[in-house]
Amino acid sequence: MIRFLARIALSAAMPLAILHPQPGHAAAPSSEHTAHISIEAIGKGAPVILIPGLSSPRAVWDGVAPGLASDHRVILVQVNGFGGGDPGANTQPGILEGVVGDLDSYITRNKLQGAAVVGHSMGGLVALMLAHAHPADVGKLMVVDSLPYVGDIFLPGATVAQVEPQAKAMRDREVASYGRPANDAAASATANTLALKPDSRAKVAAWFKQADPRVSGEAMYEDMTTDLRPDMTAIATPITLVYPWSDQLPKDRADAFYKAEYAKAPNVTFVPVGDSAHFVMLDQPAAFQAALDAFLAK
Asked: Is 68:57 a contact under the CB 8 Å cutoff?
């Protein structure tokens, strides 16, 4: 998350696979589209809701979803406009609130209250918003490299008013790129700050180029101007925070930063993953799988 938004600030360059459960263990896959999200559900068992981050498709969970589907109902969320999909209502403001509302409606309609929810990056912020607004929906929460307020990256203790002009300028530049050819160099440069491994970087760059810049720009703006810091004390849902460290962000610095950002949350387990950048599940799939298994076993 730290390198993610730092890179965006410098460059402002933001740019379906259907997974099959193991035979004999899973219910038939199902799909659903709402105004703000699309959902693919696979497997059978206790529900796990997986929410990807900014400009990312549901394919970010390809490394874990098929295995989970052997004994879980896996709900794979994708924000409309990412993954090459139709943007739906997401060309207008209100993306994050819309995603939260659509998720709550889906959970209520399908009687999935108390689900395990996993969110990466912007998806982690959405998951925190869901747990705050609809606490019965989320039984436990795994947040993967996300913050209650990303403005702290730019200026510790910053207010939304201090960050908003920069967020607006970045949004407007991104939205203005709609209809132009994808910038391969910018996508690769951004991906190189978000992932450490060559294969991870290639996937991330491709996903950014696929995303609708109108949606990426507005979603980035809303992410940067959403401040959950005052609400963290009210989120009683147990939180597991997975965060990366590496030579670029040594473990002692990462530990201090993330623990300070989540200090007001009443129930947090911190899980650092080394030799990784923002896309932990791509850079360190075995370590991420172990963290996910431990989270679900609680």
From this structure: no
